[in-house]
């Protein structure tokens, strides 16, 4: 028989115990932020019928869905490539009559058949929120503020939010009377900040002089509040003017929140062009070349499921957040078991009784079931980051006694097993949750 290859499929990632602990830390920290803002968790199916998912999914993402056949019905299934369309459908059907606004949070995995990118795989994890039923700028400000609070909750420093509004560019493209092909080419060029190609494309379009000047200025409309004044000179059409007014109000409210220093405005931003109906933002951290979080307003999404309703949301990429935390040397506590019980007696009564009693207090307890010397067992406990080692049958302990080692403090004492069973909190304090 030929040996099987041990490698994971391309785009898959394994989280070993310490990595899994860090991942859970990030997810818990972000979910804690969301809950403090009044968001409730929702859990959606990993797979659904492909045509249902496609109804709320952009064409490019549809082409990257993992699909399989339902053996029972013969219908095509798909692993969710994005959770927002799922939530939009749930709100449009199951939560349609709920009082607005609806605040939902999630921590989940999604699947896309993309080429793996920076700390981003074909199965990747997200933590995010959806705020449904608020069409005011306060909604965008709320999710941006949560994104910033999330970055801080993860201990990250030197971050910024790039904030734009696709309608500003859409209005200019309408004025220029671009066809779809030229429009896509212009957007690709703007995304690359490719000035020379932009000049060529604009010359080919030959738009009115003020539109030409506006399109060529887009890559420069990036920075602080003064960008709004510069952009105002180019916002001669109604769509661009509305976008600019909306962006100005969002920025004003961010200043009231005291968060404007973390925000850079980018009027030439075109990422999310086919997805977002209003403001769009990405969170970047210095020294890391990809967005750690992204989101914006997507008022058209629920309409795809027959329910016109305003919505805004964002999500953190958990894998990227972990990579940035590692780059910035953000410490994540990696505790081992609270207790490790070593038993040299044959009857095991004391060991099992202590393990059960301590677990009842909420402490984590592991037992050393392998027969080996004390020194080797304690070395194993240290490697597992154990706090307390309890040794039954120790040479220095009599019948009914246990030697308690505090590996963190480097201390050792002999205790009566009965006393520990009666009042473990007296002897271990923070080592139990009694």
Structural features, described:
There is one protein chain. The protein has two domains: 311 residues, 2-Layer Sandwich (BirA Bifunctional Protein, domain 2); 93 residues, Rossmann fold, CATH 3.40.50. Strands 1-5-6-12-11-10-7-9-8 form a nine-stranded mixed β-sheet, with helices on both faces. A five-stranded mixed β-sheet has the order 14-13-15-16-17, with helices on both faces. The protein has a three-stranded antiparallel β-sheet with strand order 2-4-3. The mean pLDDT is 91. It is built from 16 helices and 17 strands. The chain starts with 16 loop residues before the first helix and ends in a 6-residue tail after the last helix. It is of the alpha+beta class and 434 residues long.
